[in-house]
Design a protein that fits this description.
By secondary structure, the protein is an alpha/beta fold. The protein has two domains: 1-164, Alpha-Beta Barrel (TIM Barrel), CATH 3.20.20; 224-335, no CATH class. Helix content is 45%, strand content 15%. The chain has 13 helices and nine strands. Strands 1-2-3-4-5-6-7-9 form an eight-stranded parallel β-barrel, surrounded by eight helices. Helix 3 links the parallel strand 3 and strand 4. Residues 7-304 form the Luciferase-like domain. Pfam families: Bac_luciferase. This is Luciferase-like monooxygenase. To bacterial alkanal monooxygenase alpha and beta chains.
Length: 335
């Protein structure tokens, strides 16, 4: 990869219609291996629970799987939903990953449950108290992962002195303010929550306070990418993502759908309007079309890094999309 904007991968670990969990995890391994070969900066996976279309609920375990299959690409969470967990447990998990894969591990954090409220309650945390404790839980994580003090009574083993870098993730102004206050890198979920993107980045950059981890603001933006040899093929592949968002709106918990020839046969006009707004920053098209869309996005956001999800049902088409994004000569010259 070339240019000043880094490119990374957010693997949504889609459980595709007609496929199983083992196949999904093998696809994640293949994506990470290819991402490393193509020069992507990092591969992240996200914590979701109870979703029939997402296979990365045990995020740290899956990171061990892809870390073992690769050699140098950074791996991490995009993110761990901290209110679901004891900070000490997360420090131990990511301290273990850092010992296995030195200088390669990121710990991205979010405060949403990553699921429905019934499943959140089954995770056995008091959700209201946990969300309110989010800033102090981040501080606790920093303490567990940092250099231990002589009077420290609780020590993460593994984890202590690992200095795993933290990121804050979000889709709101709250997360931007907190990342700025803590002096941490900030990743915005513009791939599914576009409305506050520019306000969040402006607040984060203007309020940023340097920290031991980071001396100046660093921004990442999420983008859905469906790139194929032609615009027509890309639009066809994109119908899987459109169906997924329609299912989310309907409350239908289904695997990641196969593409369809005519999206109008499975989604209503109102649903398609909602989806178009939600996915307004999606990159969909041939390499030439994608280049123009992406160049405009980077110019407007000034993001230091773009993290791409490739929500494509067919694994070969997904890997091809990754390659097209990475190898476009126009992109290499311009970004």
């Amino acid at each position: 990869m070339t240019g000043s904007t880094a490119f990374s991968i957010l693997d949504l670990a889609p459980i595709a219609q007609g496929q199983g969990i083992a196949q999904t995890l093998e696809h994640s391994r293949q994506m990470a291996v290819q991402a490393e070969k193509l020069g992507y900066n990092r591969v992240w996976l996200a914590e979701h629970h109870g979703m029939r279309g997402v296979g990365s609920s045990a995020t740290s375990v899956v990171l061990g799987h892809i870390g073992a299959a690769t050699n140098k690409i950074r791996i991490g969470s995009g993110g761990i939903m901290l209110p679901n967990h004891s900070p000490l447990v997360i420090a131990e998990q990511f301290g273990t990953l850092a010992a296995l894969f030195p200088d390669r591990v990121d710990l991205g954090l979010g405060r949403a449950p990553g699921t429905d409220m019934a499943t959140a309650r089954a995770l056995r945390r008091n959700m209201q108290a946990s969300v309110e404790d989010y800033p102090s839980d981040i501080r606790a994580l920093q303490s567990y992962l940092g250099s231990p003090s002589d009077d420290q009574t609780i020590i993460a083993v593994p984890g202590s002195d690992s200095h795993v870098p933290l990121w804050l993730l979000g889709s709101s102004l709250y997360s931007a303010q907190l990342a700025a206050q803590f002096g941490l890198p900030y990743s915005f979920a513009s791939h599914f929550a576009p409305d506050a993107l520019f306000d969040a980045f402006n607040i984060y950059r203007s309020q940023f306070k340097p920290s031991a981890q980071l001396n100046q603001p660093y921004t990442m933006a999420g983008v859905m990418a469906v790139i194929a040899d032609t615009d027509e093929e890309a639009r066809y592949l994109y119908t899987s993502l459109q169906q997924q968002f329609a299912n989310l709106r309907r409350g239908a918990n289904k695997p990641f759908a196969r593409p369809v020839d005519d999206i109008n046969t499975v989604c209503s006009p109102a649903e398609l309007s909602m989806i178009a707004h939600t996915l307004q920053y999606a990159i969909v098209g041939s390499p030439e079309t994608a280049h123009a869309q992406l160049a405009r996005f980077i110019e407007n956001t000034l993001a230091d890094e773009v993290i791409f999800s490739f929500p494509i049902h067919d694994q070969k088409a997904r890997l091809h999309s990754m390659q097209l994004l990475a190898s476009s000569q126009n992109m290499r010259k311009s970004l």
